[in-house]
Structures
1.
Amino acid sequence: MGALILGSVAPVFTPVVAQAQGAGNAAAAQQIADHFSSVRTMTGEFVQFGPKGDQTGGTFYIERPGKIRFNYNNSPVRVISDGNQVVINNRKLDTWDMYALGTTPLKLLLSDKIDLGGGRLQSVKQDPDMTTLVIGDKKVFGSSKITLMFEPKTYELKQWTITDAQGLDTTVMIFNLRTGVRFTDDMFKIDYQRIAMKRKGQ
């Protein structure tokens, strides 16, 4: 009899339960995002895993909104975002590859306030040792997305993965974090004059 009752009501109430669970997950995800957004500056060490299995590491620096810098160990390469542009600079070869920050999922990580509304939150997975948020914006980034992994009790960011339009993943694991730090004025400075000279062949 109980089975018959459950069987008859399940189709009626299952969507409501699913909606409630979905709303609960979204609210929990936004709470985590709000906490992370409140961290205005951060620095620490990182290990990066590329789509071909290559591994690099170094030190990173973040300042909201929009600023990030990666200094790689034993490498002339550095990555800098000044809030508008992202450059990959090889100091040995004096090469500069530049991209608009607003066209990359990295913008979602560095936003002044991470807003998961408008369909940007693609999925939430809550495990005892990790909460995983998948965020994207198909109107801006197409199929590219960023996956953020947080410690569920402290909401501390542990790693992120950027998936590009080809489905290739680049993962950054971070540790030895310090927040509330102050950076020098030139920490996120991009040498646009040098880039312009290079483009002119000088």
Note: The first helix runs from residue 2 to 37.
2.
Amino acid sequence: MPRIKKAIIPIAGLGTRFLPLTKVLPKELWPLVDKPVIQYIVEEAVASGVKEIIFVNRPDKKEVQDYFKKYINKIPELEEVLKMRKKNHLLKELKNLEKITKKISFSYVLQKESLGASHAVFQARNLVKKESCAVMWADDVVESKIPCLLQLIKVFQKYKKPVIALYRIPKESFQFYGMAGVEKITKRLYKIK
């Protein structure tokens, strides 16, 4: 049974839809409640059994890499301050992220030119070789009891075919997204025509 051990996460986008904010802070680090969006994506990957995250990034965009480095390298002073101030919920969150970063390895490859999403994924080819892998988008956070990626992996293992998660969008949003023609296989499983 093919196992998915690696996930490619393209983060090289310019964030033009959200200028000028993305010039200061990449959208992957924007907070969603109390954590950056990218943390939710990495947590989903870990919960789905992924062992290596391959970030595809631009040469001038190091903030995401720096974010995870800070959790790999402990800051004892910060922990002491949180203990002293009885901020146990923050200390717990810090420890949780430290645990996650120990369960997974991070690799970084560069996309030197902005030539689209598929080009970004292609940049990771030397790290993935011929292994099956997941591709996760840094701005697609899915809330579910069973992680979305884990659901996709189970379908992939059952059918041994490439799998993609899609969702319905309202007609007025069609102009902003790519469309797929589908054929129903089971209740929540469709074949792209």
Note: The two ends are 26 Å apart (CA to CA).
